[in-house]
Amino acid sequence: MNPLRIALAQSTSKIGSVNDNLRSHKEAIKKAQDRLSNIVCFPELSLTGYLLKDLAFEIAPACREAVESLKQVITSGEVVIAGYVKTDNLGHFRNSAAVIDTQGIRGDVSKFYLPTYGLFEEMRYFAPGDPLADLKVFETVQIKFGIAICEDIWHAEPIEALARMGAQVIFCLASSPVRGLQKTQSNGASLVEDQWCALLKAHALMNNIFVVFVNRAGPEDEEYFWGGSMVVSPSGQIVASAKRFEEDLLVVDLDIDDVGRARRFSSFRDHKQRLHEVLERL
Amino acid sequence: MIIKELFHSDLSINAELVLDYLTRRLRDYVIDKSRRDAVIVGVSGGVDSSLVAYLAIKAIGAEHSYFYMLPSASTPKEDMEDAYAVLQFSHANRSNTRIIPIDDIVAAFEDRLSERLDRVAIGNIKARVRMTMLHSFATIHNGLVLGTGDKSEITMGYFTKFGDGGVDVLPLGDLYKSQVRELAAFIGLPPRVYTKPPSPALWEGQSAEDELGIDYLTLDRILRRRFDLWHDERDIATEIGLDEETIKRIVGHVKSTQHKRYPPEIFRLSFRSHGSDWRYPREWG
Predict the structure, then answer these.
(1) How far apart are CA A133 and CA A127, in angstroms?
(2) Cβ distance B217 to B6 under 8 Å?
(3) Which of A71, A183, A212, B22 has its CA 20 to 30 A from that of A256?
């Protein structure tokens, strides 16, 4: 048994109010500490709110300082993952997630796939991440982990790459709003929840990794986020899930050895690089 | 039977989830986001306002939900009976419920305008008089006026601009009429409320389906296919078993009423005018 305790901080953000969100992050981190969590993960753009529109330009300068300041409440051996708007050297903005420890920002990654359809208009505001720079595996005493941000989870490559780079756990930071209220095969779930479950299970199964999905919950502007954060095991089972529609702090113990055990009964090892050569040409 | 047919159509909803969702959203919108104390609903005895009345009490509580029946001479007596039945079913607070006939107010308008008005013009005055009254009550109670329009009506532009369209929030605005009926049946509202032919009752004998020239279940199937699923009009005609002209007529109606769904046009001059350039969230500050 190689236990790791993670906390899924399923939160609601106040749009554009970095200081308010920073305060609620610190409160959630404190609660996770009380429950002896090693890693605390927040949803996509957790420090800023998701539906920023033109506010993205106005709040970006405050973000870096806010993310950095989280180190004040982080204790030794603990890691926090939070979403924010990053300003790059060219003055472009990115939808990013930072990994923070007692020293401050240890590293960050930016979202590759910026949804621009329906209610989403991320390409209007953000520059996309670069796979050569933003596919990163972070290491703690207990695990190696990677980060995927929302729409990146709707594609196969980012998580496959992270898994093959050694990540045993993928933290998926999301802002998924309620959509599709017709009857679904899953009891009580909306269509979008059904879709996410299928995606997360598929990634976990194809790569034999833990997939940790952290969604925001509750209202934000004209949207309502369904929460339902969950942990999927390397064998594709949902082992824990948070409340639907409401803020929640879900604390889960992972046995990282499950990754190796699942790979004994899988074709994960049969990686066909030449398939990617074909993809590269398309 | 409408509801039985609906349960087996592709419009059928997860009623339990939808009810939970709408209740949460309404409570959040009124109390947390808008920081208001109350909700104001004009109840007509139709399925939309009946469902909104039920939701209001479920979300905000009977003590803070105010209901107004504002009948005119063209309001059927049965509709007022249905409105009372729904309020009783929903456990509305009796002291928060009023009935105020509006004929004398409408007559005063007609008199002062000194023009010959047709029934549509008079019907619109009725809708706008009701809107004015509801907003007055909203001011008195520090509340929001809950609109009762559904997605079928909004998409077809079947409402009076600045009348029943002049509201603070539209809780049912993303549910087609058929889905509203299904939700009403799920809740257990009196069956007559969701099975009777819908009517704005702006004049005697008015029927929504007669005016639209199509029954709501068929209309909703067309609208969903054309606008939610992006189906081709010819394919829709084949799928539903109607002629293509009917589909084109419905779609044409949607297009010609676009102005009713948008705020008034602003002639743009600056680099950042209100509208497409002004992209701040609704929830701001």
Answers:
(1) 13
(2) yes
(3) A71
